[in-house]
Amino acid sequence: MTGKNACPTKSNFMIPLNHYLLLSAFLFSCGVLGVVVRRNAIVVFMCIELMLNAVNLSLIAFSSYLGDATGQMLVFFVMVVAAAEAAVGLAIIISLFRNKQTVNVDELNILKW
Amino acid sequence: MDMMEYFSNADLVGSSPILALGTFSLIALLVNSLVKNSQKIVFWVCVAGVVVSLWFAFDNFELNHTAFSDMLLVGGYASFYSILFLVITLFALFLSVPYLEKEEYHLGEYYILIILSTIGMMLMGSAGDLITIFLGIEIMSVAFYVLAGYFRTKLSSNESALKYFLLGAFATGFLLYGIALIYGTTGTTNLIRIAAQYPQAFMDPLHLIGWGLVLIGFSFKVAAVPFHMWVPDVYEGAPTSVTAFMSTGGKAAAFSAFILAFSVPMSMHDPKLTMVIAILAAASMLIGNWFGLSQTNLKRMLAYSSIAHAGYMLIGIASGTQLGQQGITFYLVSYGLTNLGAFGVIAMLEKENGKNLSYEDYAGLARTKPALAALLSMFMFSLTGIPPFAGFVGKYYLFASAVQSNLTWLAILGVITSLFSTYYYLRIVVYMYFREGGEELPPLSRISFATVVLSGIGIVVLGIVPSLILDVLKSMF
Amino acid sequence: MQAYIPIFLMIGVGLFLGITFLTLQRFLGPHRPNPEKLSTYESGMPPVRTARERFSVKYYMVAVLFILFDIEVIFLYPWAVNFRALGVFGYIEMILFILILLIGYIYILKKGALQWD
Amino acid sequence: MTTELTIALAILLLPLVSFILLIFTGKRYNEKSGLVGTAFLGADLLLSLYILFAKIPSEAKVWDFTFTWIDFHSFVNNVPLKLDIGIMVDNLTAVMLVVVTLISFLVHLFSLAYMKGDIRYSRYYANLGLFTFSMLGIVITNNYLLMYVFWELVGLSSYLLIGHWYEKKSASDAAKKAFLVNRVGDLGFFIGIMIVWMQFSTLTFDGIFSSIQNGNIPFNSNTWLTAAGLLIFCGAVGKSAQFPLHVWLPDAMEGPTPVSALIHAATMVAAGVYLVARTFPMLTADALLYIAYIGAITAFIAATIAIAQNDIKKILAYSTISQLGYMVMGLGVGAYTAGVFHLVTHAAFKAGLFLASGSVIHAMHHALHQVNDHHTDAQDIRSMGGLKNKMPVTFWTMMIFTLAISGVPLTSGFLSKDEILAGTLAFSKFSGHTIIPIIGFLVAGLTAFYMFRMMIVVFFGDHVDRNRADHLHESPRVMTVPLIILAALSFFAFYSFNPISASHGWFFENVTTPTVVVPESVSATSTEEFVEEVHHQHTLAMILSVSVAGLGILIAFATYYWKKISADAVADALKPLYNFFSRKWYFDELYDATVVAATIGVARLLAWFDSVIIDGIVNGAASVTRLGSVISGKFDSIVVDGMVNFTAYSAGFFGMLLRTIQTGKLQTYIVFALIGLMVLLALYI
Fold first, then answer.
1. Complex ipTM, two decimals?
2. Nearest C-alpha of chain A: how many angstroms from D672?
3. What is the pLDDT of residues D145-160, one digit of tens each?
4. Closest residue in chain D to residue B296, using alpha carbons only
5. Could you give the domains of chain A?
6. Domain tally for chain C?
7. I need a surface site. Which of B251, C14, D40, D198 has the fewest CB within 10 A?
8. How large is the average pLDDT for residues C16-44?
9. CB A64 within 8 A of CB A6
10. How many other CB atoms are found less than 10 A from the CB of residue D222?
């Protein structure tokens, strides 16, 4: 793939790169904030997914603006990795739930100090 | 169309250690699913995979090129680290069998996960591209998350896994964001091609922020303060054999990728970037050693010690010189052997449900098990950095690199914190030799003992004849 | 700003259609409720308990496995796009890839993860 | 490596072999282990003698074997980064080898009888081997790295030896105290080494000295050179029990008496003096001045304390500190050879004194045991008396040692003390510090006084208990033979044929002041001038020293033998002063009140802070009670163990930190990480 086809024609109609980046940064921050304030392990994990997808957005934007396919390729990898993490994460949360009957991360405190 | 444009024999040769281990992991998975009660067979398949992979890695050592259009480095550095990971894996595999049998939770999946994480490590150690680093980290980490929660009926193991998983994934987000920004500002994720765009690319603030985010991601993985707080909890909760593997292999892999990635921006000798890494190093040494002082659980103490050692190794990154990078590499070898040995002893003495892990439980060990006590003392001496053990040479190396790069204050801090650390390392020696005690000990396995003895011999040999490794290092960098 | 016109159009059309259809059915459709109709629809069976209850863990298991195999297809996509250019070599590569997934599938099957009971 | 150096290496390794052998076979052949250890040391002594007789006539100034242990193939400050280690034998080393192995051999021999029947007999001999090995290591290395390693090994093995009877609380406390006080000094030593290494990237004596000679000064400042020298000297302050770290030595008398003879006469405490001698070339005039004063103060304080002691071993302990102060003062004033010479002569007669006191204590123990007296202290000189006729060999040998330490002519002590005093006179002439020679002569008089006080009270007159006296006997041959050998070595003839001056004896001819390498602007008086001046002062020094020693002896006889002066009356008249001396200048109390109290105070403050503020906020009332009990438990252990149990204290402090930071809650971790991130970001921008 040379990337020529992947590159949209540059015209006046293009949304500036900065806007994508700002949106991506905003979403990323939302994710970080969610990780800090939410107590449900699954929601915390969803917020992490949000962070990853925010990064995907900027990767696609960069890829599109640079006319280079590497970014898109990386996005594929990120998605697959996120799926694998989701599977493992869910499994861990389930096994925790079986033992403790809760998924509240605040109640995870037998390991400390 | 000629496919050789995409793929050549050299690529196959270059990736042979990884491919071999991957193939064996698939075979092991097949065996595990098709044969009932096949733990032993799976174990030996995994061992065979590691050995074959080792052979390929040795074979590749003389090479010096890249594979898959610069995605993968071949030979030299990559081979050295592959060998290191594989040896650590081998030790960990042999330590695990008796431990799992003792805990009566012995599944074939355990070994498969171990070698899958090794594949991730090898990718990290031979990465020529940020994508490879990312993939390697993820392959390794996902396997580690599962391994940390391996005792799925134990709450501590669950908790350890979940904490590790959430913080690990969180760190991945930062790492990835950093990679995205670096990609956006240079148009490539390839480390060689990024370096080619220096110094102009380095002036771009977005690019610098990208490296900063990657730095945070790595700091999580190597457990540098203030991104270290998962370490004690995870190390304590995970099965001891897994902790042994994570604290050695995982740390070595993270540093191998750290060196590869940061040799690019550090080549600019930017005072601010150096300062930030130096502060991370200083904070890790201080916090790790100070908090280590007040621990009563050995696994947790070694977790804080692992944070402190991350600090010592970050000195090598901060120095930004070849000397520093060689120092880290040597340090990783000695630290790997030492920690495997120490955790090996702990795993051997551990009783069911994580009992027998505190300092008090080791009182009088010198009388009941003199050989184990002597070995554990040696490991503690090596961690402290007392000659003639390997730990001393490693520290000397890293402190010298700090002095060479005019970071003398960092070297002084390193020395002072090392002195601090003697208190908690040698406390266990005092307990073993000068306190009365001695309860019933679990039966000790010969395999574990042999492994521990081997790592003991390793640190003494490396401590007395460090040139064995030093000469290899010289040819690598 | 011009660049955003398609997006705004998209949002506008989406909102418009959604709102219109929801309002339309309220006015156009007949509205004659009885208890039978208001109860949860479960494939024509009479509902036994409330619908808001916890799922069996087995659902999670299937869901997890589904995500994995579903997302792996993503790698087929670039190959499919350049199928002709990649030729026989690409075909072999993809077969290998599918084979690896197959081993995973065999593992799942043999471990009984897909058995409902 | 030459044959001689191979032999030197063998000298070093033989005691180690003995140690390993005894550790592994000791349990099985318990009774034989003493003989094995002694045989090893005997062989070691013969080899050392061979080295001495080969080295002295040899042309070469030094036999050196250095090899590159680790080569990093890299450069730091344009100096190749590598670690050179090795061994060397110069005249000083050759002499020290003989001194160490001789004393160690005699102690091994003496212990055969003294330690007979001890429950850890083989462990005792194993530890003696380890100790001798470490001490020989200090003497034979040619670099600070190995020296530091052996230095710590000496600390460790002395800990084992002093705490040999660790069931006795006082013994294990004394061992801990010795270990910890030494650590304080070693910290300075270590930092000194680090400064040197940072500048020169080498740790061999030769490399450092030649670098300094070429004008390479740490941080380009002579002050740093002085500081480096003084920091290294800190190590000596700890090991050689110099003021203010002298407090460990008297307590260390809790170990078996032969151990005291070994550790406190010829080896461990001498290591400090040896270190100063080795470092001598890089010491600036300022550093030397400090060293001289430290030595003088130590000599004076210890001598005054010794006057008021009643425990025979305590008297000898303080006299050791005092004599060590003498040596350090000698080196400080620039009388290098005299200082080292005193180290050698002192090793012989002080080891003799300790062994003789051991013989006395042994006899007393035996006698007390026979009369079923378990209350009388076998070491208190007031419960002795009249032992002269009961133990003639012990008496006569001990008399010779006492004459030697008092500096009476014809003894070795006279020769060496005289040279030091002449050195101080010369020094005061050059620098104007007249207080130093004054203290020197004063201490000489005091030494003669308290040593003769001890001799008279122990050996003359009648025994305090007639009943017990019948049971007092001379010690067995194996104990008296070492005494006789050491007594012989306390005569002048072994060191110089001229009974009144050693300056043309073999020692002074061969162990000469090394070339000073510090820049001229900060160096002390040149060696030639100094030696010249010492010759001028020699006669004066001799006359003065003999008179003060004679005076001291006279007063001792007048007070304790003829009873012309009432000791009690004097003590009463000078009560505050007497108390001050007998309570050892209140040093222990001072340290208890400051260092230990500060530790406790901080702990108490933290406990209060922890329980009131932190927990009030974080955890609420329930954990306050729990934590309170934890803290009070910690508090107890701090009070009980004092500053010894540093870890317990730190657990209290860092436990508090941990409770607030490492809460076990995931999101706390993330918040701390994010705060850290902000801080780093602020630095980055």
1. 0.85
2. 11
3. 888 888 888 888 888 8
4. D651
5. 17-107 (1.10.287.3510)
6. 1
7. C14
8. 79
9. yes
10. 18
